[in-house]
Write a structure and sequence with these properties.
TatD/YcfH-like; 255 residues; Metal_Hydrolase; metal-binding; 16% strand; DNase_TatD-rel_CS; eight-stranded parallel beta sheet; hydrolase
Length: 255
């Protein structure tokens, strides 16, 4: 069994063929999918989608790359967390690429969501771009009881080890399929397998062989195959260990 720990299955990209996408995922052995929210507008959409199947698990959060009316959005998020069973707070974090909101806007939003994670005893799904050191500093300050996953990890080996010290796992997906991603491939090869979880970020981040096409959760099986090839290990081992890690961290059911 495989778990896609980060898939935006509620996005309109899937509206035309969502049932077929889900069927392909199950055929590929992907039995559980974590669906993170990104803003107030899709909180309820994520909740409703995940209510349709015990195989889908909601995470609720406010993404740093989308505009938010911060106070109102945080209030809506807190209300949703109060009345819904979710597996994580996410997708949250910091993104310091040019063109994104200023750090003075992003960081308070992130910190208040870390506080919600503490309040509700939930792990977090982190979006971190060009901000790993800043995020690590904040995670040390807040000392979350249940850690979480660094989605689409893109940091250094040293940063990976610092996240691991805090109990975090690292999400790897389609980016490792590109020949230019030598740093990521080296991390996948050298880091302990118990630190890794699988993801697609569908419909985004397609694998190289599917470039130009919407990504989908079935392709987490191809991510597992790539990791198995890089490490020279059976895919059954990759699947078993990454699945157990995700289940334990997010308290997912063991089928």
């Amino acid at each position: 069994m495989l778990i896609d720990t980060h898939c935006h299955l509620d996005f309109p990209d899937f509206d035309a063929d969502r049932a077929a996408v889900i069927a392909r995922a199950r055929s590929a052995g992907v039995e559980q999918i974590v669906v993170p929210a990104i803003n107030v507008d899709n909180l309820q959409r994520v909740i409703d989608l995940c209510a349709s199947s015990p195989c889908f698990h909601p995470a609720l959060g406010l993404h740093p790359c989308f505009p938010h009316d911060t106070d109102a959005a945080l209030n809506s998020l807190a209300q949703a967390l109060e009345v819904n069973k979710v597996v994580a707070i996410g997708e949250i974090g910091l993104d310091f690429r040019p063109g994104q909101a200023e750090a003075e806007v992003q960081q308070p939003l992130f910190e208040q969501q870390l506080q919600l994670a503490r309040k509700y005893d939930l792990p977090v799904l982190l979006h971190v771009v060009r901000a790993h050191d800043q995020v690590l500093k904040l995670l040390r300050r807040y000392q979350l009881p249940r850690a979480g996953i660094v989605h689409a990890f893109s940091g250094s080996e040293q940063q990976a080890r610092e996240y691991a010290k805090l109990g975090f796992k690292l999400g790897f997906g389609g980016a490792i399929s590109y020949d230019r991603a030598q740093k990521l491939r080296r991390l996948v090869l050298e880091l302990p397998l118990e630190w890794l979880v699988l993801e697609t970020d569908a419909p985004d981040m397609p694998l190289e062989q599917h470039r130009g096409q919407p990504n989908e959760p079935s392709r987490v099986a191809e991510v597992a195959q790539l990791i198995a090839a890089l490490r020279g290990r059976p895919i059954t081992e990759i699947a078993a260990i990454t699945t157990a890690t995700a289940q334990q961290l997010l308290r997912l059911p063991a089928y």
